[in-house]
Input
Amino acid sequence: MLTYTLKRIATGLLTVYFIATATFFAMHLVPGDPLAGNKAMRAEIRKNLEHKYGLDKPVLVQYGVFLGNMLKGDFGISFTQQNRLVNDIIKDHFPVSALLGVLALAVAACGGVLFGSLTALFRGKHVDRSVMFLVILAISVPGFVFAALAQYLAMRANSVAGRTLLPVAGWGTLRHMLLPALVLGLGTMAYVTRLMRSSLLEVVHQDYIRTARAKGLPKSRIFFSHQLRNAILPVVTILGPAIAGITTGGFVVETVFVIPGLGRYFVQAVQQLDYTVIMGLTVFYGGFLVFMVLAVDIAYAFIDPRISLTKART
Amino acid sequence: MVDPAPAWDPSLFEPVQRSSIQTGVARPSLSYWQDAWRRLRKNPQAVVSLAIVVALLVFTLFGPLVWRVDPNAPELTRVSKGPSLRVEARVLPELPPFKQETVPDVPARPEADGATLPAPERLEWIGEPTIEAVRMRWTPVPGAAGYLVYRSEEPPAGGYLGLPVGTIDGGNTVSFEDSFNLEDRAYYYSVVGQNVAESKQAITRRVVLPPGVSLADAQTIQPGAKPGDVVRFPLRPFGTDSLGRDLLARLMAGARVSLFIGFCAPLLSLAIGVLIGGIAGYMGGSVDQWLMRITDFVIALPFLLFMILFKVAFGAGPGQSGISAMLVALVVLSWTSAARLTRGQVLQLRESEFVQASRLLGARPVYLLLRHLLPNTLGVILVSFTFAIPGAIFTEAFLSFIGMGVAPPTPSWGSMCNDGVQTFLTHPHELLLPAFFISIAVLAFNLLGDGLRDALDPKLRSVE
Output
């Protein structure tokens, strides 16, 4: 178990290193001037700025400096935001994104398991059909449309109620978080619902369910402690990739709902070729994702004793 | 010691009656694809989806031949018009210049509490309200230091009066002209007095504006138009966007971009993926190892970041739409899933009996790959192609939505959504129409993919 974890951590670090290297060179190959945002400037000022950010050195030397600083955990100063440390940007804005992501994931997981169970219990009935129709709808409609619609509906509800029931933008209280989390979690919730449904329907035919039924256990007991418990496993596996999806979707939701999360800075930095912010956030996101997938895999082994991580995998 | 063969005994045999032999096959034989097509046709969801896909293709390929409107031509006199089939409007009479009305005898009392001020007693229109301007006057409120005018499209409720359209300084100025983006519909105007704080008491009056066109606007369409004439302007069945461009024409042109990327990106990435996966699976050994490490590396790249970097690197030049840059980026980043899929299939098939038989008969590797291995993976690949299309459409829409997609003025469904979301609260059709088209296309391809999977591979039949 420990060897496996260490091995995974080592591969993870290697992956992050590869991502960082690829991003670094791709970024420097992109035509464009990271200092161009500051309009016309005199040659001396430009030279000073280039010196300050180390842009006057050859790219390979810059790469070496970057790697050295990365090992120390220092990503430098943002080009476009005056004297702001990349580490500070992450420190200030990541908690917001993370909170939003956790809420969205909770919405997705709870809603998905609930609706998936409903559809499987009422297979072929109206409940099943209507929920599955909604699921297809949720998969087919882009997230930003849901975001705009949710904002519009909240605005109408507010105007009918005559006071702010749900704020349509901004961040701060739990009420601010409800709508964005719901919108962000919707797509994943649809996938979880689908997965939960097929997984539950598969489990129904297992021998242990027949045994439980033959023992005369009450239906609710069979459902909760045999069917649901076994069917929920695949859901755990997709939570890892789902985190990646939710981070990407977070960019849009953060833009539409004006939430001061990390996603907006990322998109902005790429648009303005803010080298240090791009590198810092890429390494941070890469490491975060690798870590989350690993955590999910380890959690999986604890939940499902049939899976042994130490055995050779194909 | 072998027993001697039993003696020939003709009585054990009897001739078969000719009529009992079945000649020919009971049912006509069906090829794999014929069978798949037969299954697909039995699936109503898949048939409807296929019809929608064909309809979308007709819409984008032949639509512009019928609907010859330039999708990029702005018409500034008709901005953000909702869908409508009306093509005629009466020219409104020329408006006299607006003069503020003041009453001399309202002394401002700075000490009055604004929140407790009464509402104006009367609110009346000056002249006929038209879509060019709504002019109003009201009775002065003693103690008011100014007034606020609100406009709402629904009856005001719960203290929400609508959009603030005007602030009047001075309690003795009791008139206002609203000429901001008026449309032919009902409005509710509310006037409240204020003195530091805003009064809770409002007077509200409803007005229904008749359709019409202002003289200045009419003269841009028909130079000699006079008040009272009826002018004809071009039909805009789906309305116009915030720059007055025809939405129907833009949807057709946008479909071309969205569907082009939706088809071509998966097609190209499949071609590359199948080739690499096929080679990796067939060759095995170190070739396989290396190709799969490259695949793993590409998978690990952060998708969004590299999409944007590619976009910036390849096609940011002025006058370029950036479609090809986006296509290249999508292909480079998404061939991996097809490669893995093909490799898995080829690995499985390589050891199957019919391939070994073919090899035994002396088939060359290229022949094996092209004749046996790839055709047999085609079904699975076709299914993954159908599912990759909505993915590509989504990615295009997402990138265009965050402003990193096709460059304006080239329309795509995603960039139209991006334009529409800014005016969504006032003119929802500008977002809802392109969003509807994206959704219907993605829905159709998803359902078609489900149907194809069921038809091509009964083993994978979904539980639904």
